[in-house]
Specification:
- The chain is of the alpha+beta class and about 425 residues long.
- The protein is about 30% helix and about 25% strand.
- It has 13 helices and 23 strands.
- It has a 4-stranded mixed sheet, with helices on one face.
- β19 and β20 form a beta hairpin.
- About 0% of the residues have low confidence.
Length: about 425
């Protein structure tokens, strides 16, 4: 059971942590298991994530068997899955990928309308366009979304009207078992997409990436058993880099995804972060927080998930910072929670303005979503006094063993009901 609140105080941190498997990758891999009759084994598996647990329960409701063994999991099934997913618990946006995989494999899927973080207008019509272009009929049925087809889906040319990660993933999943060739133009090719493609190709899929221009898929009849190591979580890695700098701590980060964070690390190094590479590890120490000027964008740029972390970083700088999020311009609500801790922030159009340098004070705050919650936790670790974060389960949605890792570094933190 997840406790309701996290209480944290200013802490000096020191030690080593290993970056866990990526939330934004493992959820896609779990959805992809619907395409398989055979066993799927995943390593570096972040089993404690709340979104992972929800996804596992959904798969079990469909007929999958899930067995954990340390940091690995084996997902298997006996017979045909029940792709009419009756679900009354909390939903996650990944249900859209379950739908795509279900209609591709079994010709029918019914899933609850997607949930997760409320990030502005996150509609799902682009997913509907993807599935209908491959021959599925998609429609709403109350609080559920249904996709059905007569026989196998048929490959087609898909031109995404925007570089959507989720739509790209759904096109890949549905295209794998479609008849013929599927070409996806204007895809959002990012590390999690590459991890998904690598996983599927190991299982016998035929997927080729042509940079950011297109992805081509030659449909196959079925996929074979596969073993795969989940990529390290670049969001977790970025969080530790920013926290180490904010708290004037020295932290060694093992299994660090340098190649996935090249652009964000350029901005952070120019903004006072000291980060050194030692093989597959990063060492962060003795840095400063300088004002930042960033705009979010597609990979390899700074994505929308990252901007609340940059906002927390900016709060400690002696100057004014500007953040623009054109993808999800409504994602600044967390700034009102930061203001309870003394952060001076204002929203002007699509821009968040932070006047840093003010004293950060402990307060009672609320995690409005996953990344907003971790940003408040970062501030709580450098604030004077005690900070209590309610709805702290949001943080547990995406950070594997976060409290345990912080305790191992010497943080003053506890969970309460």
């Amino acid at each position: 059971m997840y406790r309701k609140k996290i209480v944290v105080k200013k802490s000096q941190l020191s030690g080593t942590v290993s970056i866990s498997g990526a939330k934004n990758s493992v959820l896609r891999l779990l959805a992809a298991t619907v395409l398989f009759n055979n066993d799927v084994t995943l390593y570096n598996y972040p089993c404690s994530l709340l979104d992972v647990k929800v996804h596992e329960e959904m798969l079990e409701a469909m007929g999958k068997q899930i067995v954990h063994d340390g940091d690995s999991v084996c997902i298997s099934q006996k017979g045909k899955l029940n792709t009419d997913l009756q679900w009354s618990e909390r939903s996650i946006r990944n249900t859209l990928l379950i739908l795509g995989a279900s209609v591709a494999k079994y010709g029918y899927g019914r899933v609850p309308l997607p949930g997760g973080c409320k990030l502005g207008e996150r509609k799902y019509d682009i997913h509907v366009d993807v599935l209908t272009s491959l021959g599925a009929r998609v429609y709403e049925d109350g609080e559920y979304l249904v996709a059905e087809s007569q026989g196998r889906l048929v490959g087609n040319t898909i031109k995404l009207r925007m570089r959507s990660t989720g739509a790209t993933e759904n096109a890949i999943l549905a295209g794998c078992l479609s008849k013929g060739t599927t070409k996806i133009f204007n895809p959002h090719v990012r590390p999690e997409i590459i991890d998904l493609i690598g996983f599927l190709n190991k299982a016998g899929a035929k997927i080729t990436v042509f940079g950011q221009e297109r992805i081509e898929i030659e449909g196959v009849d079925s996929l074979v058993s596969v073993r795969h190591t989940v990529m390290p979580d670049n969001m977790e890695a970025l969080t530790w880099v920013i926290l180490a700098t904010m708290s004037k701590s020295e932290i060694r980060l093992e299994n660090f995804p340098f190649e996935d964070l090249e652009v964000p690390l350029i901005y952070l190094r120019e903004s006072g972060v000291n980060l050194y590479r030692n093989g597959n590890s990063a060492i962060v120490s003795s840095g400063n927080c300088y004002p930042i000027e960033i705009s979010t964008g597609p990979y390899p740029g700074i994505n929308s998930d990252m901007q609340p972390l940059f906002a927390a970083f900016a709060a400690l700088s002696n100057g004014t910072s500007h953040i623009i999020d054109l993808r999800f311009p409504g994602r600044y609500a967390y700034s009102s929670e930061m203001s309870k801790m003394g952060v001076v922030a204002s929203v002007k159009g699509d821009m968040l303005i932070i006047d840093g340098g003010e004293d950060i004070k402990g307060s009672q705050v609320k995690a409005l979503d996953l990344r907003a919650g971790i940003a408040l936790l970062l501030l709580g670790l450098v604030a004077d006094g005690e900070t209590t974060i309610s709805d702290s389960w949001q943080i547990k949605r995406g950070y594997h063993n976060i409290v345990e890792k912080l305790l191992s570094l010497g943080a003053i933190i506890e969970e309460i009901d």
